[in-house]
Structure formats: C-alpha cells, structure tokens
Design brief:
It contains one helix and 25 strands. With 527 residues, it is mostly beta strands. It has three domains: 172 residues, Galactose-binding domain-like (Jelly Rolls); 134 residues, Jelly Rolls; 115 residues. The strands form four sheets. Strands 24-23-22-21-20-19-18-17-25 form a nine-stranded antiparallel sheet, with no helix packed on it. It starts with 10 loop residues before the first strand and ends with a strand.
C-alpha cells in the first residue's frame, strides 16, 4: 500500500515549561476538562517530521466510543491534529471506532499524546459486524508524545468494521491526538508503471545537483532538494511563506527549471521563481499559480534562456501544505560543442505540462515507531524592499507582515500555558506558547496556540516578527491562522508576576477579537 508519495502531516512536541518554567503540573495535564488540548502539551509543526505516505483514512469522522470521557472521543478521528481524546485517567483505558461497514485495512496510525514519556503497552483489536473482537497485536516499549505508532499489515486485515485500541500500561493518562485507519488503494487510485501514464521530461543537464543551498527553515536539510535522490526531500516544516535558494557557483544560461512537488493535501498553490547573477540582486521570472498535487513536476521552459544566472530562489506564498520539494533541477542550455546545430536555443522534446500528476514516486517505508526530533523552524519571510543594494531579499517579493516602524527584538525566551476567562463568566480559553529570539536571528521563532472554547475559535501562529521583553512584561506579534483558514495579524502581551502563575496575565488581540486577563490556571515564565 505504501507509495512513494508524501503526507506532510502536522506533528507534535511538548511546548512550554509550565510550573516554574520546567514542567507541567499533574493537575493541569490530567484534568479531562482539557479534552481539546492537553495543558502544556500541544501540536506544533516541525522540520524533522517523519514523512508517511498518504492515507485513505476511513476512520475520519466515524462514530466512536471510549472507556472514559466518551463525549470527546470523536476528537481522535476529526482529522485535526491539534485536538485529542483524553481519557483523564490512567490505564486500563480504551477507545473504539465504528467504521460503519466492512473494510480491508492495511495500516493503522495512532498519534501518541503522552506526558511523561515512558514504557507503554497498547493492544489493537478488530471485529467484523458481529462485534466479536479478536486481538491483532500488542505493542510494548518506550513511547513519547508526538510519536506515531504506524502499524502496517500485509496482507491486510479483512472484514473489519470495529477497531479498539486498549492501553494497559502507561505512566500518563491515556490520550490520542489522532487515529487513522488506512484503506488499501484501489487500482483506479494507483497509476501503473506504463510509460504513457507518466510522461517524462527530456534529459536535463542538471547544474543544481549537489550545489550549496539555503532555506527559510530547516536549512540543514535543504540540500536534499538537490541531491539527485527522489526519495529524499526538503521540508520547511511550516506553512507559507517559505523559500529555498540554490547557489549554482557561477553564472550560467538556464533554459529549464523542474520542481518536484511534495505536498499534502492537494490544493491551490502559488510559487514564485526568482533569479540573480553573481551580485545576488534578485529579479522575479514568473509566478506559478494553480492546483498542484504531490509528485507533480512544475516544468518551466524558458526560450530564450535565462542568462547569467548564479542564484535561484523559489518562494512559496500560498499552499494548504507545509512547504516541501522532493527535488529541484536546473537545466543548462547545451553548448554548440555538445549540440552541433544552427539553432541558438534548446527545445526539449516530450516536455511535461504544468499539471501532470503522479510523476514522482519516491520510496519511503516508515518504521513501526517513527519519532521526530523537535527543532526550531525560524521563518524568513521576504519583504518588499527595493533592491538598491545587493541583498538576500528578492525585490518586490510578497510580505505577510508589512513593516511600519523599525522594531528591535529582545534576545530572550518566554514560555507559558494555561487558561483565562475571556468573558469574566463561565467561559474558558486555553493557550500555550514558546517564543524565543537570539541575537543575530532574522526573526523570533516558536509557536502559539489559543482556543476559545465558548466560540470554538482556534488561533495558531504562522510566523513571528517581534519579541520585546521588559522586566516582567513581554509582547510578541506576527501572523496567525484562525480556524485553519483565515490569515490575520496577532499581538500577545503577557506579564510574569508570580512564580506559581497565580497573578500572571495573558492577552491576545486579532482583528475584531481581544481577550485577556489574569490566569485561572497555568503559568507564564520569562526566562
């Protein structure tokens, strides 16, 4: 079932130090009232996230039941990796999914929500329509929050309608961020290897192979976009705006750029291609907009060729997916020595159109327990500065956050998590954040999630542009996404007024919404 494609999913990490800036209090973590996010443990996007193949998830939105806190058990199959089911109790606990019909299942993915880390035992049981369960396997070992227990069955499990995961041992209250049940792809979903099904571009004299690269985030892995290996990729670990840059080493004539899309889910994207000579003053060549899918090749042919090109930057300004590329190839115009012809330009045959699908099939076989390592993923968003002086910032590049007056970031780190009462009544809002800035960084980095449980409004950050710390007060601003769709500016102000958080203050503002006040639970720490 595993294909050579990508599911750039959201993944998890332990966020902020809550009690004394070091650990989450047991009361906060184990309160089942925090059914929508474990207090102090929160979903964030990371550059080193494991890449799994797409899952035809038949558990999505299905009927669920659980041993405890059953009303919130549906949050384990809601497709939202920022919500979870939390039993609010130690083992033995279980969650059950009714698929609604009989299916063949070849993969189950269970996204661990756990604190503290430690040895756990989980049993996977299945049943047909009679609901007479049989145990498939027992999974035992050390697990950590955010880990994916990825169980692949070959041959697939047949006649499955009911799935139950029973946790019999854990140091944590039992919870799952998400459970996915993957259906084997049908022949119509899986393209064959027939050459006519996968049109191929002409041979490329790829001058980007192995060259020096840079990126807005996860720079250390950006070289995997030019390593010639279609089974590896660069993954920014963040939504747009993100960019990747290639130094060809010296000026060259370029007549073709091929960018191999790594994307999940499919959807409308906008990518800008910028080039520069040795002075590194960028000029935009074109913007490519439209629906793209994982494995597609964005094949751009330039006639006449682009001349004196040393630097190439691809900026993704719009995408439903975290920005990633399997491979980027830059094709050199053949010289007269290699191509004896009177034609001054090279026109490749069999050129792929802008929207082929399923052309790239890199292989990736996930292990049973893929674990990611939390790393910072700073975002370097291009600004609208004119290119009067050679600079790394392309001219006329789009910007999410317009700069109004020069602002100075304060080196330091702030963390926090807890609850406020946004309406001074019985309403509840929860938040968690970690923001830091080091001298020399282009921008602050970190993450913030805020949920107003009265309105079910969810705010998650996309990027930061300011962190100012003055004594016990701090302020940070940037760009956020509301309810997964609307991009807005945000501002947060916090006050660290007590060691235990009882007097700490949190306030958040976006257009048409402001909430804040003293914490009703939790803690904020200025480190």
């Amino acid at each position: 079932m595993l294909s050579k494609s990508i599911s750039v999913a959201l993944f998890f990490a332990v966020l902020a130090s809550m009690s004394y800036g070091c650990s989450v209090t047991e009361t906060q973590l184990q309160d089942p009232a925090y059914g929508k996010s474990l207090s102090g443990v929160q979903a964030v996007a990371l550059a080193d996230a494991p890449i799994l193949s797409p899952c035809n998830n038949i558990a999505l939105g299905k009927v669920t039941n659980a041993s405890a806190n059953s009303a919130l058990s549906g949050q384990a199959v809601d497709g939202n990796l920022a919500t979870l089911w939390n039993a609010g109790a130690l083992p033995t606990q279980w969650i059950e999914i009714d698929l609604g019909g009989l299916y063949t299942v070849d993969e189950i993915r269970a996204y661990v929500a756990q604190s503290p880390d430690g040895n756990t035992t989980h049993e996977i049981w299945v049943a047909d329509s009679s609901k007479v369960y049989r145990m498939v396997e027992t999974i035992s070992g050390n697990t950590v929050n955010g880990q994916i227990l990825n169980r692949v069955y070959s041959p697939g499990l047949t006649s499955v309608q009911w799935i139950k995961i029973i946790t019999t041992a854990s140091p944590s209250w039992v919870a799952w961020w998400e459970i996915q049940v993957c259906l084997p792809p049908s022949p119509t979903d899986t393209p064959t290897n027939t050459p006519t099904d996968t049109p191929m571009p002409s041979v490329c004299n790829n001058i980007a192979l192995g060259k020096v690269t840079n990126a807005s985030a996860n720079t250390a892995q950006s070289g995997q976009a030019v390593d010639g290996n279609p089974a590896t990729l660069w993954n920014a670990g963040a939504l747009p705006t993100q960019w990747i840059e290639i130094d060809l080493g010296s000026p060259a004539s370029v007549d073709e750029i091929r960018a191999y899309v790594a994307q999940f889910p499919d959807g409308n994207t906008t990518h800008e291609i910028w080039v520069a000579d040795s002075s590194k003053v960028y000029t935009m060549v074109e913007a490519i907009s439209g629906n793209t899918v994982n494995g597609q090749i964005l094949n751009r042919v330039y006639s006449p060729a682009l001349t004196s090109v040393q630097w190439i930057k691809i900026i993704t300004t719009t995408s439903p997916s975290w920005v990633a590329w399997w491979e980027i190839q830059v094709c050199l115009t053949p010289s007269p020595v290699n191509t004896p012809t009177n034609t001054p330009t090279f026109t490749p045959t069999g050129t792929l159109t802008n929207t082929p699908t399923n052309t790239l099939t890199p292989t990736y076989t996930p292990t049973n327990t893929p674990i990611f390592t939390a790393t910072d993923t700073p975002t370097n968003t291009p600004t609208n500065k004119p290119a009067d002086t050679p600079t790394d910032t392309p001219t006329d590049a789009p910007t999410i956050a317009p700069t109004q007056t020069p602002l100075t970031n304060t080196p330091g780190k702030i963390t926090g998590g807890g609850n406020i009462d946004p309406e001074n009544g019985n309403a509840k809002a929860t938040f968690g954040f970690i923001v830091s800035y080091d001298q020399g960084d282009s921008a602050p980095r970190g993450n913030l999630t805020y949920i107003d449980h009265e309105t079910d409004m969810r705010i998650s950050t996309e990027s930061f542009d300011l962190l100012v710390i003055k004594g016990t007060h701090a302020r940070f601003t940037g760009t956020a996404i509301v309810n997964g769709t609307q991009k807005v500016r945000f501002e947060v102000e916090i006050d660290d007024l007590s060691k235990l958080g009882s007097s700490d203050v949190f306030k958040i503002s976006i257009p048409d919404y402001t909430a804040g006040g003293a914490l009703t639970g939790g803690n904020i720490v200025i480190h």
